[in-house]
Amino acid sequence: MTIKVNRAVLGHRVLTGVSRRHLVDLVVELAAPWQAVVEGRRDAARGGARQRAAGAGARHRLVFVDRVSATLIHLRHDLPHAVLGLLFGVDRSTISRAIGEVRGLLAARGFAVPDRPGVRLRTLADVFAYAQAEGVVLRLDATEVQVRRPTPHRGGRRAFVSGKKKQNTMKATVVADAMGRTLWAGNLRPGRMHDATAIRSEGIDDLFRQFPKVQVLLDDGYLGLRRDHPGKAVTPPRKPNKIAAPEVHQAREQARHEHSSQRIPVEHALADHKRWKGLARWTHRRDTLPATYLAVASLVSDRTATT
């Protein structure tokens, strides 16, 4: 049975999660890199460069615009590949290959910079350099995504068990600005790893020394960073001694409230990512989650950078 669906419907914002204008921009931006990926795969299969002129040979049954739309629908609603194949009139394997190609291209785009069209941040060092140049106070936090339990009787199985969630998870780190706009996301690690350990593995200690004017607002999970980088890594004030005066306790609670109000935009950024169904709970292969999270965060940054 073949189901014919209007392509205009499949490109609607309700399905793709992005506006039609954004979809057009993505198609224009990713067309050339995708063609390079396809040619590279074909050259590897042929054992050498093509002999015929570009454009010769069999045509793709799923054109590039539909490949991008199918990938966005999968990221936004986590529809099975077989369902997408039915909607686009192709085999499930074609959809799987298309999603794998386009998702990797989306993950490699980086993150949009507010009021800087064409400029994108790809590493944490880029974010620190941008923050020091523009005087931006960063907000950093980690979030966990539930994943499938690893196969029994294999080494490292317990590494994904989160002590906080009591589930098998992977942990992602996100950096946002005062408006809740995503500036960087990544550093996905097994859920058992501590938040501070995860971001230290990304080299944040060296970045604090390299960019001394950058200030990062953190929660209580990063007290070690505050100890090592006072005045740069800012966490809520510690609890005073029990015998301290009531005014001391009241001032501490007020300071914690003000710190939370300043740090809350990064929580809004995390919520923007979790609205994409696949990141609410990841039911696919764990090794594809990092590229998926980066792809979603990149798309979200495009929207928030213009608002």
Automatic annotation (TrEMBL):
Q: Does the keyword Metal-binding apply?
A: yes
**What top-level branch of life does the organism fall under?**
Bacteria
UniProt key word DNA-binding: no
What keywords sit in the KW lines? Answer: Metal-binding
Provide the leader sequence positions. none
- Residues in DDE Tnp4 domain copies: 140-296
Q: Which residues form the Transposase Helix-turn-helix domain?
A: 60-110
Entry cofactors: a divalent metal cation
Could you tell me what this protein is called?
A: Transposase
Question: Species name for this entry?
Answer: Kitasatospora paracochleata
Its lineage opens with: Bacteria, Bacillati, Actinomycetota, Actinomycetes, Kitasatosporales
